[in-house]
Amino acid sequence: MIETIGTGLTVFxxxxxxxxxxxxxxxxxxAASYVxxxxxxxxPPGSVLATATWGASTEWSLAALPLFIWMGxxxxxxxxxxxxxxGLSPWLQRVPGRLVHVNVLGSGxxxxxSGSSAATCATIGKISLPELRQxxxxxxxxxxxxxxxxxxxxxxxxxxxxxxxxxxxxxxxARLFLAGILPGIMMLFLFMxxxxxxxxxxxSQMPAADPVMDFRSRVRASQRLLPVLALIVCVxxxxxxxxxxxxxxxxxxxxxxxxxxxxxxxxxxxxxxVGLMSAVKTACMIATIVVSAAFLTATMGYTGIxxxxxxxxxxLELDRGFLILAxxxxxxxxxxxxxxxxxxxxxxxxxxxxxxxxxIDLIWxxxxxxxxxxxSQITPPIGFNLFVLQxxxxxxxxxxxxxxxxxxxxxxxxLALVSIFPGIVTWLPTVLTAR
Amino acid sequence: xxxxxxxxxxxxxxxxSAGFVVLIFAVVFGQVxxxxxxAAIERLTGQTIGLLIPSYSDLSGxxxxxxxxxxxxxxxxxxxxxxxxLFTSRFPEKLRRSVEIAALAIALIAIALMxxxxxxxxxxxxxxxxxxxxxxxxxIWLPQxxxxxxxxxxxxxxxxxxxxxxxxxxxxxTPAPADNSAD
Lengths: 435, 183
Prior knowledge:
Helix content of chain B: 55-70%
Oligomer: heterodimer
Number of helices of chain B: 4
Shape of chain B: elongated
Helix content of chain A: over 70%
Order of helices and strands of chain B: HHHH
Structural class of chain A: mainly alpha
Shape of chain A: globular
Strand content of chain B: under 5%
Largest interface: A-B, 64 and 62 residues
Largest sheet of chain B: none
């Protein structure tokens, strides 16, 4: 036992040294695992490397990943951003916070056809940032609300992180998707609540409302939302109705997104090529980490580190709440220098037995993990939403992070709610899969 | 000359990867269409016919592997793989260069090893005549060839980056890895 802890510390030290030196994440995982197998076990590292990586690379459910990423790329290059802005804004003129809510609701809608927070942030921000700034809304609330609410991209299905998590811990991706819906909607309400509260407290920083449209013109403007809504219904609906796996739904989504942008004349040969190659890069980046993490997981299995770690933590007889709190702090710390996908995969490889032994539901844990990862998306120095907003606004990352700070606390409130009332996560998948 | 040949290899591997993503889409979407057609026929005639693309999940799995492995070199060439630059970006210029060379050397060894093991894996599958269990008995070495070729291209790309950096020239799209803004 003491021996394995020594082994474990050596392996982690090696892995984190490689990461800190700027070795690419998947390559650091491969190198550390290879050395660990060579030094601490008698199994041949080479054949484990080959079989583990090959096995993970052909995982059918992972095929949803490039397809959902591609779908997001097609939509990003279409007129969906304009549609969301013009369709939503007429209804929000009288709500406290007015058009700032476009950021929240637009993110929520786009999250339902996109699997990534950064993509949601970029797509919504592309149009809402210039429009809101031009109308005189304060930069801080505009940037902050966009940074914060676009994080639901990972929570509201489809979700790339949930696909990766589901594959890594062998849980049903469809159930994970179901589990993300209520927490996602809850977060949207919390964000809107904060925006309304802020606007009521700072009326001087709010510009005058646009001229109010009559009801009929508002309805006419909202017709622009129909294509997006149809897409949501087809993609998400087919998973919930149970007749399509997430991979099937992703293929349907790509087909519809292509159709939509072709019908509206957005689908030039150039846009198609650029979108596809960009999807290849993002999908390959993620798949490479998944494949390498499979080798790390296999290595961990041979060294016995996760099992002994679980026994050790189990022996401490920690309170569940305390365990969650401790894990949250560790994840937030990791989130300061690692990206979300890597955190999820490291978790699956190393501390999964601890979670299972503590009797924590793996579906619930997946959603909890996504929320923590979302929080790390908007905390400096490494936060992908911050990078996206940095390049959209031209402001430096610290001022973007400062604008996002209130939303960091809103996310913490959401995390606390989900921890205190786990039913928010588990109720929907239980009800819908009980049939 | 050499530069453009090497970049040509990475570009072609990227296109192959894109081609396989399109193939995944074609196979999965094709099966969805067949499911809908089968269901419609069943509704109309009462006869159950399950129209199938043979070995549909095997095929899309193999296409996914090919898309991933062929994409590695292209993604590396375009700074797409993720890394932590939080610490190294704060190093003084000289130290940063040495650390960059060390990171590339480690990467070269690790990925060359992976390519070698991929060759062993595919060779064994070929010698033992392994094939997939589905309706189509696809010889496993065939999809594994994508692992071999993709890993070799990735190894070449990292070796290229190492040599380029050693010669004091920038590799990748951003000359200095100032920020970790990979998409």
